[in-house]
Amino acid sequence: MFEKEKSDILKNVSKYNKVIIYGIGAWGKRIFTWLEEAGLSNRIVAVVDNDEGEKFGELLGSFRICKLVDVHVRYDAIIIASIVNKVAIQERLDRYFASFTTKPIYIFICSKTAEKKFSAEEYETYLRYLQSRYSKKKTDFVGITKDDYLYQDGDPRIIAWYLPQYYTFELNNRFHGTGFTEWTNTAQAIPLFYGHEQPHIPYDLGFYRLENIATLYRQAELARKYGIYGFCFHYYWFSGYRIMEQPLKMLLENKDINIHYCINWAMENWTVNWDGGKYDLMCKQNYTHNDVEKFMNDILPFFCDERYIKIDGKPVIMFYRISAIGKENFIDMLARMREFSKRNGFPDIYVMVCDCDNFDYDVTCLGADALVQYAPAKLCQNTKELHIEGYIDPRFRGSIRDAQEMIKSKRYLNEVASKEYYRSALVGFDNTARRLQFTSFILHNMTAELYKDWLKNIIIESRSIHTSEKNYVFVASWNEWAEGSHLEPDVFHGYAYLQATKEALEECREL
Length: 511
Hints:
By secondary structure, this protein is α/β, with parallel strands linked by helices. Helix content is about 30%, strand content about 15%. Helix 9 (about 290-305) crosses helix 10 (about 325-345) and helix 13 runs parallel beside helix 14.
C-alpha cells in the first residue's frame, strides 16, 4: 500500500539536503518512517505542526515537534504531509513566506490530475452524466414516509448537528458580499467527474431562510417523523459577540416547536475559508477568564427550557476545538461552568468534547464527562483514496476518498481512549461548494444504505455500553448543505437518508 506515494516522496526528498516535514498525523509519521528506512532521515531538519496544534514539544523520532517559526536552520523543501488538508497548508505557507525573498519547494504526496490526458469518449461520457443529473427521471428518489416513527423503550435518542448559517447577517455581508447565506455556495457547485453528486439542491424545505419561523416548525416536524430526537446547534460565541444565533433565539421564544436541542460551542476562529485557522479572520476566539460568566448567562435561558437535552438533569453542552483556548484554560473554564450551573439550580452540566483535536487520552482528565466522535473531523481521514477512471476536471487538486470501503470495514468503530464516549454516523461529506470547486475533500460512493449500516452498528453498540438515560447517538448532519452532509431531503434522493434513519431505529429493535 502507498508504494507510488512512497516512491514519489523518496525521489523528491533525495534532491534536497534540508527538508521539513509539515504535519504529524498518519501521513507525517508514515513519511518519517519511509525516510528512515531509506537512509534519508539525515535530510530532515525539523518536524512541524500548525500553530493550533497540541503536540508541540513531543517527539516524532528524534525530533521535537515545533512551529515553523521556531525552525532556525535553513531548509530547502517542505513536505506537506497531508492529503486532506494539503491545499489549506499550502495557502498557510504561501502567506508565511509572502515577504521572503526566496521560499522552499513544496513536496506533495498526491499525483497531479492535470498531467492526465482524456479521450474524447471519456469527455463525452462526462457530458452525458451532466445531462442526466438534470433529467426528470430520478431512480434513487425516495418519497415521504406514510408511517411516522414511534419511539419505543430501548430506542436510542438520535441528535443531528445543525448549522444555522441560512440567513443574512452583517458579518457575512461584509466578508462574502451582501445577501450571502450558506445557499450562495451550495447552489454554485458542479460535478467534477462522472458520478460526482453535485450540486445538492434542497427538496421539501427548499432554499429556506432561517428568519422564517415556518422553517423551524417544518424542520422539527420532519425530524420527529423520522426519529430524530433533537438538534445540536453549532453556537458561535466570541467573548460575548454572537453570530448566527437567530434560529436558536426563535426556537427559545416559540415553545410549541416540538424538538429537543442542545448547544455545541464552536470555539475555533471563524474564518473566510471556514477552516478554523488564524488567517482571513472574521471573528477571533480571544478567550478570557471573564468569558465564563458571560457565556453561561447567555445560555442559561436555553438550559431552563424543558426541551433542552439533559442527562440525569444535567444540561448537555458540547465543545468543538478546545485547542483554540488550550487545555489549562479549558479545565479552569469547566470547573467554573459547573459551579455556575449548580448556583442556578442544576445538579451540574454534562460536558461532551468533540474529537476534532487529537485526544489520545481520556477526556475526563480535562474535567469533561465524555468524548463525542464528530465524524467529519476524523473518520474521513481514515478512508482509502480513490483514483477516478475517466474524465475529471483537470483543475481539481483536492482529495477523493472511498466511503464504501471505510464503512464496510467498520473502521468507524475504532477504539478511543476515553471510557465514556458517543459515536456519530455520517450521511456524506463533499465540501466542493465551499472549497472553490477544485480543492475539495470528497467522500465518494456514499449511499443511504451504507449510512444505514453505519447507523445500525453504532446504535447496537450504544445500547450495549450506555444506560437508557445516556443512550444517545449522533448524526452529521441535519443541514450542512455546502459540505454535502444533510439529512434534509434533496431533489435527487428525496427522503432517502431520513428513511434510512427511521429504518435503522426500527430494525435494531429486533437485533
